[in-house]
């Protein structure tokens, strides 16, 4: 099966009985979430990448929203990155990621909801063309990072939000953090860099996360994200970037 993105007019790749499939896009942070969970739990799966600018009709029949990720196994289809991740954790019970304590799970849900503020200000900064607006957006993003710095420090349990081991929130947050360094490169703004002295707990978390096998099996380096985002900002994203097949 090709890694290249299926586009309008393409033929639907037939599913196989009992084989879990993820509909994805290689550079999408939300798809990245699901792939992290799949790799963490060592779940066998196949990937079908989707061209989000020219979606196949057969994909819209599977997921009318046209978003990724979506999981499919036999007649079951799960859309939305959080729903997909939680479903995987509930069905494949090895290496559980969700906290067993209901209160802790609720606290992690609050952290999860706050990601939209962090990633929203990051995207605003990435799209900024005015230097003053850019700096305002960078400062706003740093404010949201400070929120996570304080929450992680308050837990005081280990390098991860889950303590000595990563929890679901760690994996759901990471894709947005992995993309953050593109800001300093694309905007040529040193102020976008994360100062380890100001964010020591968050910086330690980043370093611990980078050592996880599931992270090494997914995602890209900063230069690769920069290359993708340059096309994305021009509304000409190359979903097949770096693929030769």
Task: Write up this protein.
Strands 2-1-3-4 form a 4-stranded mixed sheet, covered by helices on one side. It has 2 domains: 1-96 and 237-245, Glutaredoxin, CATH 3.40.30.10; 102-211, Up-down Bundle (Glutathione S-transferase Yfyf (Class Pi), Chain A, domain 2), CATH 1.20.1050. It is of the alpha+beta class and 245 residues long. Helix content is 51%, strand content 7%. Helix 1 crosses helix 6 (168-179) and helix 4 (102-127) packs parallel to helix 6. It contains 10 helices and 4 strands; from the N terminus they run E-H-E-H-E-E-H-H-H-H-H-H-H-H. The protein is globular and about 50 Å long.
Summarize this structure as a short list of keywords or feature phrases.
Glutaredoxin, transferase, globular, GST_Omega/HSP26, 7% strand, 245 residues, 4-stranded mixed beta sheet, Glutathione S-transferase Yfyf (Class Pi), Chain A, domain 2, Glutathione_S-Trfase_N
In short:
The chain is an alpha+beta fold and 245 residues long. It is built from ten helices and four strands; from the N terminus they run E-H-E-H-E-E-H-H-H-H-H-H-H-H. It has two domains: 1-96 and 237-245, 3-Layer(aba) Sandwich (Glutaredoxin); 102-211, Up-down Bundle (Glutathione S-transferase Yfyf (Class Pi), Chain A, domain 2), CATH 1.20.1050.10.
